[in-house]
Amino acid sequence: MSQFKLKKIPLLMFLSTFPIYTFADQTTFQYEHNWKSMDRIHGDTIKLIHKTDDSWQYEFKFGVTEGGGNKRDVLYDDMQGGSGGVVIQKTITLDDGWGAIIPSLELGFSKDSTLYQPGLKYSYKINNDWSTSFRYRYEWKKISHAERYKTAKISGQQVKYVASSNTGRNRLDWALIYSGIKAFNFNYTFNYYIGDYTNNSYKALKNGFSKNEYKAYNNKKTDYEQEFKITYNYSKLFRPYFSISDVSKSKTTDTRQAKYKVGFNYAFGQSNSKDSDFAYKTYFKYAHHYGLTSHYHGDSFGLYTDFDKKGYVGLSVNTYNQLKNRLFFDDIVSSYYQLYGGYNFYLADQWVLTPNMEVRFYSGGGYKAKSKENLPHYQLGDVSDSQRPGVRYSPALKLSWLQSDDIALYSQYRYEYRKVSRTKREDSVQGYVDNRARNRFDIGTDINLSPDWNVGYRFSYLKGNYVLHNDKKHDYQQEFDINWQATKAWQVNLAAEDVAKSLHSDAREAKLALGLSYLF
Q1: Is 487 helix (H, G, I), strand (E, B) or coil?
Q2: Mind listing the pLDDT tens digit for each residue in 218-267?
Q3: Rounded to 5 degrees, what are φ and ψ at 362?
Q4: 204 by DSSP, 3-state: which?
Q5: Which residues form the signal peptide (predicted)?
């Protein structure tokens, strides 16, 4: 048996351009708010970034938009998920001061597409004050099955045709950075884009089809952006910034607009360093899900940071395949993006009170299918939670009793308030969906069977102001999970969940999840 003390990372809890400061083995939280001067639409980006002492960097992120239906000048209202993903890169330092090369790979998701983006960056320090970089990326965007095909009546016959194309885009970036003033960094970036469709698609006419033509900006296949950014080096850990960019507004005209960004990077300090305010551990987490009856596959992945028993924060990207029995990244779209965290108050030697919060931003991937046959009602194991664009706020209070070093019991109350984007509350398939709320009561236990094995059980009772299951406003769920510490860094997680399958019958479904956790 390994002498490493098992740290359980509950599998289903997880479901519930400026570089970061270069501490070794460090995690950084980034928040950014943006606004475009002519579109007048607000948005937000949230990231967790972990950099290891051997120059690997892992970035998990998602974007949120405000003002459903392109409502202008709306701040933090009618929010919904936009896109999310993960970026992995490695910095390779060259000899004799020749700078560094940085290969990278990005995997991104939106409600109707998947993005694959490999890239290569060269960075060079000119002197103590000036540095520059060049980067090339190829961006391939694959459209989901539900968006790719449509049917139309042509010459009296119903014809199925390809309505949307996948796209391939080359991206070239040049950046110039000045750091000669101690308190500030100044950054100028120029981006150039050139792209095209990678397969043919068509627009239906009365008597035939016309081929779609790719347009990026001003009826051309090229576009460009410019950005000027100022970063204030308030401390080694906290760095706010502001930027203004020149971006295009339309694919068919030469109209351009300003895009403003304001945000900050906050580094948690060096992991497990005595110089840090608190030691912490950061984990990469991945899980694959499958419904035994609905036959839908899904994936969840992100970063989870544990602050040495003081609390935790995490970010996850959650996706699913729109078609049944499709494994992994086959026709995958985003479901929701989640930010969660909590803080531990030690009431006594064996009692811990943990106020915590989960916020989910739903992108609406798959919700607007034209028929119930293609509509993935059950892929997430929660038929009472609409997948339409919007947000869910879930504050909670958890009380744990640490009966011994190997046994913990807990209870938790969570209030879940679900807001659906105002313009997406009604459609022809699912009807009308309004904002809704429910109360959730959890009891559970975690048991360390050995230094390498842990098991857990949770029972949940849900009471809502709307139908949850079997035409009733209450429901229950059960979860059993097993966790195996395979090595000091790797943990294997297996879970089975008993969930409702239908709003209008007593049918239930088993959902299985197989996951991995990696301690950086």
Answers
A1: coil
A2: 999 999 999 999 999 999 899 999 999 999 999 999 999 999 999 999 99
A3: -90, 135
A4: strand
A5: 1-24
For 441-480, b/e burial (b = at least 16 CB within 10 A) is: ebebebbbeeebebebebebebebeebbbbeeeebebebe
pLDDT in tens, 455-499: 999 999 999 999 999 999 999 999 999 999 999 999 999 999 999
Quote the pLDDT of residue 378.
Answer: 38
Q: Which pLDDT score, from 0 to 100, does residue 326 have?
A: 74
Q: Where is 77: in which H helix or E strand?
A: none
What pTM was computed for the model?
0.90
- Residue 237 region by backbone torsions, left for phi larger than 0, else alpha for psi between -120 and 50, else beta: alpha
The residues near 219 (Cβ < 8 Å, ≥ 6 apart) are: 251, 252
Residues in the chain: 520
Alpha helices in 269-316 (DSSP H): none
Q: Does the structure show a pLDDT above 60 at 34?
A: yes
Token pair belonging to 201:
């698609």
What does the pLDDT look like over 70-96, one tens digit per residue? Answer: 677 888 888 999 999 999 999 999 999
pLDDT above 80 for 22? no
Q: CA 201, CA 506: separation in Å to the nearest integer?
A: 44
| All residues at 6 or more sequence positions from 410 whose CB lies less than 8 Å from its CB, including other chains | 398, 399, 400, 401, 442, 443, 444, 445, 446
Q: Report the Cα–Cα distance between both ends of the chain, in Å, rounded.
A: 21
CA atoms within 13 A on the CB side of 289: 26
If pLDDT is split at 50, 70 and 90, which confidence band does 334 have? confident
Across 364-387, b (16+ Cβ under 10 Å) vs e yields bbbbbbeeeeebbbbbbbbbbbbb
Do residues 431 and 437 touch, judged by C-beta distance below 8 A? no
Alpha carbons 156 and 179: distance in angstroms, whole number:
67
The answer to whether residue 203 scores a pLDDT higher than 50 is: yes
* 295 Rama class: left (phi>0) / alpha (psi -120 to 50) / beta: left
Q: What are the angstrom distances between the C-alpha of 21 and each of 18, 268, 278, 486?
A: 9, 10, 17, 32
- The CA-based diameter of the chain, rounded to the nearest angstrom, is 78
DSSP-assigned states of every residue in 412-481 = EEEEEEEEE-GGGSEETTTEE---EEEEEEEEEEEEESSSSEEEEEEEEEEEESS--BTTBSEEEEEEEE
Comparing C-alpha atoms, which of 48, 78, 79 is closest to residue 64? Answer: 79
Other Cβ atoms less than 10 A from the Cβ of 323: the count is 18
Three-state secondary structure call for residue 389? coil
Residue-range domains of the chain with CATH: 28-270 (2.40.160.40), 281-519 (2.40.160.40)
